[in-house]
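Q: I'm writing a short explainer about Glycosyl hydrolase family 18 protein for a general audience and would like to include a description of its predicted shape. Could you first generate the structure from this sequence?
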Amino acid sequence: MVWKCRTAATRFDLLRHKHQARVVFTTSIPESILVNTSTTQEQRQWAQEIVDRVNAAGADGLNMDYENPVDAKDLHKQQVISYITTEIQMQLKKRNPHSSLVWDFGWKPNVDVRFYEYERMADICDFVFLMVYDTQSQVWNGPPCLADANSPVSAVRQSLLWYGAGTNTSENGSYSNSNTSTSPSSFNIPYEKLLLGLPWYGYRYHCTEFDSQTQQCIIPTVPFRGAPCSDAAGKQMDYPFTMAALKQGKTKGIIDNITLSMKAFVHNDAGNVTAYFFDSPETIQDKIEAAWEMTDGRLGGVGVWNADVPDYSDSDQGRAFWNAMKIPPPLAATLSSNAS
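A: Of course. Here's the predicted structure. Afterward I'll give you a sentence or two in plain language.
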């Protein structure tokens, strides 16, 4: 579990022991530490302060989530990020050999203009969390811009291929399945180090045009970091709010057989259409099963953004989401059989 609040650390410390769980803090990196004028001493001192906070709270490690742009040509920034990561890991292990360091990577390398020293950082960290959501943040085919799934199963597979054993991605973040020598190399990170991150939220889009036969929803053109289309044209909505909106609109979501994600379209009296793309416990489980099968059971684990999404006053909803995070019994039996 990733935890931001320090004031409740004691209560969570008791809970984690009771349930045999681990709690890690999360942090980003301040821009003042990454600029050219910062010194290695300042960078090392900041790393020490972060580790001090982790240890003072008795946490089990640190999750690093930096989502500001890192330009392909900004080698200094890339190297400083790697250096700080190294310092944090060294100090974490020195104080607690059982602590863990996790870095959040975008669903595909270089997406959203985040160019890291991927292989170096993966070597430094204990795990890499693949954020396989917001996959429509940079869409290069358009305009017209189209609404689509937040976390399609194809993105799950592509992400594991790119980072684990895969294909290639170009400098602008668009992807290609070609394995030509001129394409950037993929990153052969062990599957055991990869954590699959999935969303417990989705997006709502107001369609400027809608084709009822193809269910194609054209959305406003909102560029993002160079890409002509993005999910910034929509609004993020947690699962309970999506369910409430669909209930009010007297409609239900259906599973798209291609993306293995939920979609729904609400028509109002004026003829306007609102599209919802989201995930349910069933689609989450489908994607986890696909990932486990693809990695032959070697996947390091799964996670979500974020755990406080379900309506826990509705015990069935919360239970359904958490049960979806488990390996389905038939698959677990198969993996156990293959391992024996």
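A: For your explainer, you could say: Residues 99-141+148-199+278-339 form a domain with the TIM Barrel fold (CATH 3.20.20.80).
Q: Perfect, that's easy to follow.
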